[in-house]
Design brief:
Elements lengths: L2 H8 L5 E2 L5 H11 L3 E6 L2 E7 H11 L25 H11 L3 E6 L2 E7 H25 L1
Parallel strand pairs: 1-2
Antiparallel strand pairs: 2-3, 4-5
C-alpha cells in the first residue's frame, strides 16, 4: 500500500498554521478540528509541525504564559516528510524509530497531504484482514 492510495481515500486536507499564531489559538484549532497536529507554513514553505505533544511540553515548561507565545516557540522544526510513493511499512518503521505520529506528505517542495500513525495502522489492518480472508477462501476451496 502506497501513501498516495491512502491520500486518495482519506483526502488531502491538511490543517496549517503560521509561525506567529499563538499557542492558545493552536490549542483551540486542534480541539475544534479534532486533529493531533498542524503543519506550520511560512507562505508556501513548511517550517515546522506542531503536535499535542509539543503543546503539552510548552505548557509543562512555561505554564499558562506559553499560551500567548507564538507557535514557532514550541513547534518541531526538524520535520520528517513522507513521499506519495512510499509504502505504509516504510513509514510505520520510520515513525516508530523516530517516535513521531504525523508525517506531512510532499511532492518535491509542495505539501500534498498528511498521514498519521493511526491512518497507517488502519490501512495495515485492512491489508492483513484482506490477506487472511483470501487465505481462508483458498483453503476452503481446497
Amino acid at each position: 500500500m502506497l501513501v498516495s492510495q491512502i491520500l486518495k481515500t482519506k483526502g488531502d486536507l491538511v490543517f496549517t498554521a503560521t509561525p506567529g499564531e499563538t499557542v492558545g489559538a493552536i490549542c483551540a484549532l486542534l480541539h475544534s478540528r479534532k486533529v493531533g497536529a498542524m503543519v506550520v507554513m511560512d507562505s508556501d514553505r513548511v517550517v515546522g509541525i506542531v503536535s499535542e505533544r509539543d503543546l503539552v511540553r510548552a505548557l509543562a515548561e512555561e505554564g499558562a504564559g506559553a499560551l500567548t507565545k507564538p507557535v514557532s516557540s514550541c513547534m518541531t522544526r526538524d520535520v520528517h516528510f513522507a513521499e506519495p510513493s512510499e509504502t505504509v511499512n516504510a513509514l510505520l518503521g520510520r515513525m516508530t524509530d523516530r517516535r513521531i505520529r504525523h508525517l506531512p506528505v510532499c511532492e518535491g517542495e509542495r505539501l500534498v497531504g498528511i498521514v498519521s500513525i493511526g491512518d497507517l495502522v488502519k490501512w495495515k489492518i485492512t491489508e492483513v484482514e484482506a490477506e487472511a480472508d483470501g487465505l481462508k477462501a483458498y483453503i476452503a476451496a481446497g
